[in-house]
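Reply to dn_fold:

You asked what the input looked like. This is it:
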Amino acid sequence: LEKWALEIIEKIDRIACLLDEAIGTDKYMPIVCQMKGNIENPSLILSQQMVNEMTNANQTFAEYGIHLAKQYQLQDTKLKRVSKV
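and this is what came back:
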């Protein structure tokens, strides 16, 4: 699967290069490089990081979601306190 994905990225890379040259920018090539990095090192992908966290904490997807919701709620509460000061 990785080999196939890299073949696709190579084709996208050529298109990104042409777009950057035609438009006179460097917006597309860095994104393609990031995508290639994600394929070569899946631990960089957010979904893989989430799976790793769930596995390490021995949590189900639902438990992980509740954990994140509580973290966000705590952050929101702290932000509201700071903004009142």
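The mean pLDDT is 93.
Hope that clears it up.
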